[in-house]
Structure formats: C-alpha cells, structure tokens
Amino acid sequence: MFVIEEELKKLPKNPGVYIMRDDKDVILYVGKAVNLHNRVRSYFRDNIGRGPAIDKMVSLIARFEYIITDSELEALVLENNLIKEYSPKYNTLLKDDKTYPYIKVTVNEDFPRIMQSRTMKKDKAKYFGPYSSGLAVKDTIELLNKLYFLRTCNRILPRDTGQERPCLNYHIKQCLGPCQGYVSKEQYGEFVNEVIDFLNGDHAKIKRDLEQKMLKASENMEFEEAAKYRDLLESIKHIAEKQKITGGVGEDKDVLGLYREENEAVVQVFFVRNGKLIGREHYYMTNVSENEGEILGEFIKQFYAGTPFLPDEIMLPYEIEDRELIEKWLSGRRGQKVYLKKPKIGTKEKLVELATQNAKLILSQDREKLKREEGRTIGAVKELEKLLGITSVERMEAFDISNISGFENVGSMVVYEKGKPKKSDYRKFRIKTVAGPDDYACMREVLTRRFVRGLEEKNSEEMRESDEFAGFNRFPDLLLMDGGRGQVNIALSVLEELHIHIPVCGMVKDDNHRTRGLYFNNVELPIDTHSEGFKLITRIQDEAHRFAIEYHRHLRGKSQVKSVLDDIPGIGPNRRKALMRSFKSLEEIKNASVEELTQIPEINERTAKEIVAFFQKM
Questions:
Q1: Identical fold between 253-365 and 564-617
Q2: Distance, CA of 295 to CA of 291 (rounded, Å)
Q3: Half-sphere exposure of 129 (CA within 13 A, CB side)
Q4: Residues in CB range of 546: below 8 A, 6 or more apart
Q5: 523 contact partners, CB below 8 Å, separation of at least 6
Q6: CB 176 within 8 A of CB 113
Q7: Dist CA 146 CA 178 (whole Å)
Q8: Contact 80, 302 (CB under 8 A)
C-alpha cells in the first residue's frame, strides 16, 4: 500500500521528473525538479496562494513516482516527452500538434528534384521553410517545375539513364528528360541554382526573364505563349507578396506573441526566414496559470520539441523561467546557439507587439467558437452525468453488431473521450462463436473478448507492448449499449462474471429507430431531444453503427471478390491466372476445347476435362 507520508521521506535530493497519479492510476501531473526531495514535498505542505487548480490536483493524488536524471537538462527533456505522451489533466498543454511543410531540393542527387517534406533530415539536401500553408508549398513547387522543367520521377540517375521510356511530363514539355540523357548535369545544375535563388527570395532575375519572353511572344503575335508567361509572372508576384521584408538579410527567427484569458491562452508565431516573413500560425494552450512567463516557457518546451527546424533567435513578449536551461536545450538540438530574447525597443519590439495583438484578436474571435465546441463535448458529457446521477465520466465506449441474415457477424467498439471520438482506440471484432442472426450472443462475445483482453493487458507488460489489440487495458467510465434492457443486461452479466464495475447505459430507440431515452439502473430516463447530451448520444450511436457497417461491408466485399473459375475442381490461384492470361474473356474459356486448354503449360489434360465438364453443366 502506498503511504504518501512514508514515501515523501524516501525522496532523493537528485534532479529528476515526478509523476502524480490518482486512485485510478491516471496521470494527473508531470513536473521536473532540480531537487526531487524539496519539490515533491512542497505539494503536501500548507501552501496558501498556490491556486485552486493545484489544490484540487493535490487532493486527488493517491500516489506519486519519480525518475532520477543526471542533470536538470535531462529532466527538462524527459518531462516534455512524458507530457506529450500522456497529456496530464493538470499540466499546461499545447492543443495543436502540427507538423509544417518544407520545400526540399535534393542537391545530394546528380539531377535534383523539388518536393514537399514534413521532416528535416540530415541527408545533405537543402530545406526551405517551414511554411505555415501546405497549399503555398504546393503552389510554389508547381510554379518552379513549370519554370525550370525539373524531373519529378524517382529514378536513380545517371544509373537508370535510358533504361525506360521518358514519362508523360517529357512529352508535354514539362521535363528536360535527364532520364534519357537529353540534358547535361551542368546545364541541369544551372536551373537548380536558379530554383535555390528563388527560394532564397531572389525573384528579380526570374521576373525579368519572364517579362522579356512575354514581350517577345507578344511581338511575334504568339498570344497564347505570352498569356502563359503573364500567368507565371502573376504567380511569382503572388508568392513574393507573402514574403514581406521584416529585418536584416539572412535572419532566421520566430516571433512569439501571447494573450491569456482565464485558463486559456493563444500563442501567435511569426516565422521569419532569411529576413522574410514566410508565414504565421497560432496555437491554443489550455489549463494555463496566471503567469504569462510560465505559459510561454511551457509553450516553448512543447512546441520546439516537435519542430525539425530551430531558428537563430526566438523573440519573446515576456521573460521566462529557466531561460538559460531552455537555451542550452534548444542549442543542443540545433547544433548551434539559439537565443531567447525579449526585445525592449525598436522594430523587434514592435514585431512582438504585433504578434501579441494577433494572439488577442484570435482568442477574442474564437472564444465563442470554443464555448460552442465545449458545449458539444465536455458540456454534453456533464449533461449525461447529471441525468444518470454519476460523476467523472471521461471515457465512453459504445458497441454495435452488424450482419445480414447472420452472414459475417461483426462487432464494433467506438471510443469517446471528453465528448470527442478517439479513433485510435476504435476496435473491430469478427464474431467467432455465433452462427446466425443472434445479436445478444454476438454482443456477449464482443464484450467478453474486449474485457478479458483488457484484464490480460493490465496484467501483462509484454502483451501491452506487442499485441496488435493493445489498448484494451484502459477501461471506460461509462458503457453505452445500442439498445435497451436486453443489451444492457448482457453487458452487466459479462461485467459481473469478470468482477468489473462499470456503469452501463442503454440507448433506447422508438418505432422509427430514433433514440427516445436512456435505460439506466432498470429505469428508462427521458432525455431532452434538443439538448447537447442527446446530440452527443446520437453521434456516438451513429458512429458505432457506421463503424460496424463499414467493417461488415469490407468483409462482404472480400468474400465476393472471387472468380467463377475458383469453383472448378483443380483450379487454384496459379491456374486461374494462367487461364486469364491465355484467353481474353471468360466466354472464350467457356468455349475452349480440351486441346486448346492443354496448350497452357499449367493445365494438364485431366484439369482441362474438368473445366470443359464444369461449363457444360452450367
């Protein structure tokens, strides 16, 4: 048994990470400490003024654990990884987990290509970005390929030169044809250098060349050609307008702005590359403290742990704790010094102010939207809790059965957490023990398999790591059955046999197959059909049904993808393929004689006679 007072005495005075858990073993909070002994003990002292959220979290702590590290820097990295993996309720969390596109020029190849990449690898290619818009990246790549006719294929050149015919791009004059040796490496390289100049922001030469070609085509009355160059010029201007000059040449920096209201905040990031503003993006932070510097520090740790590119400088609206430690961590990731600075005067300060104003505008505009979303999700769950008279419902699981006259019985399990679908935890079941249309028996099998597997996973670390169905070890706070008393009783009997205690609620339908109420504790509870709780129940019910039908359709399709040839004795996959290669249609096979069939190496005389006899009976 875990006795907090006794465990506090055992805490070491080393740096490390501590993990707070509740009585269900759910992680409440992850933190780092220079001295675990002092830091963890501080939570359990009378600490007036630390805030109601922390007081609430401390009241829920049933046990804690810790991991010792060699340094505070290691503790910072480990803390960040654990927060990202578990998303603890009482940590300040970055809601958006986005990856940003780069433009990659494969200068490590003899004949380079331009492509989009979501990761920045150490492969000697050149990367430009990140860009906040995938569409902008696509447009830029398309424009450059139109201008310079670079290859888009995956052929390894010059090794594969001349081995295959040129692709369609060459025939429509969108590729120089390096795969056929139609362009030298040196000439191709000149075009690649111009592409790199363009991506570095030097648009003048390209614009000048296009203007000259447009005028020349116009003078020669080649108006379609002139219009093509005009459109390319417009595309370049459009891209150039998005890259406004913001500072000195060659500067790579991110400009951060922050605005907080209550327990939510928005961080606005301006991406400046080579002195040009190439994009901006905003991020929501939840469960934030009242200290803006603390919020900003949490954002930097979580955001820059996941981004492949780190700028020279990150400009901040507030001073942050552990600035030197975070600089050291970022510099280690980048391989070069990264500076965290709060500008006080001049252009840089105004840029930070602009980012902050943007953050304020975004949060004020989206607060109503966020409230509506919360009403649809967490608010709807609260309504259900109140209606059922239960508390602490975070995870809900719903089940459904699908079949057609007992053919291919299947079951579905869908999962909702905090009122939102968690599709990574959805599971499909192919019924093994029930033949025929018996939904109750099918449901019993599905629930038994689900919870037996969950108990096995809870007791087996090896299964959690290796089994394809891993993920069952997290049990729901509420079980939703797609039906009334019968389905609920099936679920309750399965849970009772396994000694598991979970509330079970049935979704009762009317004669028109619409949900009319909830069946809970042997009572049918009416529900307001205009409430968010009712809408959530309907969404869950529809999703469980959709998921089951989709799986059933998939299996049904697989079972029907077979040829009539498979029904002929002696015809397996190889002989079937041989027949289809040798004859143009099934009709020709039907009309073929034994002599014609035995011309196929895979078909002997006995099999040929079987084929002829089979079609004569049809």
A1: no
A2: 6
A3: 27
A4: none
A5: none
A6: no
A7: 16
A8: yes
Domain ranges of the chain: 4-91, 102-201, 253-365, 395-559, 564-617
Classify domain 564-617 by CATH number: 1.10.150.20
CB of 607 within 8 A of CB of 574? no
**245 to 311, 348, 357, 607: CA distances (angstroms):** 17, 13, 20, 77
Contacts of 456 (CB under 8 A, 6+ apart): 463
- Enclosing H/E stretch for 128: strand 126-128
Class of domain 253-365: alpha beta
Both tokens assigned to 614:
């089979």
Q: How many helices (H) and strands (E) does the chain have?
A: 21, 21
CATH number of 395-559: 3.30.420.340
Q: What does DSSP say about strands 478-481 and 504-509: parallel, antiparallel, or unpaired?
A: parallel
**Separation CA 365–CA 93 (nearest Å):** 21
DSSP annotation string for 529-569: TTSHHHHHHHHHHHHHHHHHHHHHHHHHHHHH---GGGGST
pLDDT class of 614 with cuts at 50, 70, 90: confident
Nearest CA to 259 out of 302, 322, 317 is that of 317
User: In the predicted model, is pLDDT for residue 463 greater than 60?
Assistant: no
Among the listed residues 363, 366, 344, the one whose alpha carbon sits nearest the alpha carbon of residue 353:
344
pLDDT in tens, 144-176: 888 888 999 988 898 888 888 888 888 888 899
Q: 35: helix, coil or strand?
A: coil
Q: Of 304, 300, 312, 308, which Cα lies nearest the Cα of 252? A: 312
Characterize the bridge pairing of strands 478-481 and 395-404: parallel
Q: What is the pLDDT of residues 114-123, one digit of tens each?
A: 998 877 777 8
CA 399/CA 484 separation, integer angstroms = 13
DSSP states along 61-121: --EEEEEE-SSHHHHHHHHHHHHHHH--TTS-EE-------EEEE-TTSSS--EEEESS--
Strand partners, 35: none
Q: How far apart are CA 182 and CA 177, in angstroms?
A: 5
Q: How far is Cα 428 from Cα 149, in angstroms, rounded to an integer? A: 47
E strand segments, 456-509? 478-481, 504-509
Whole-number Å distance between alpha carbons of 209 and 148: 12
At residue 564 the predicted structure's pLDDT band, cuts being 50, 70 and 90, is low
Judge: domain 4-91, CATH 3.40.1440.10: yes
Q: Write out pLDDT tens, residues 223-252.
A: 888 888 888 787 777 666 554 444 444 578
d(CA 569, CA 610): 7
- CA pair distance 285, 296, nearest whole angstrom: 10
Nearest one of 335, 283, 251, 256 to 94, comparing CA atoms: 283
Look at 278 and 74; give whichever has higher pLDDT: 74
Q: What is the pTM of this model?
A: 0.47
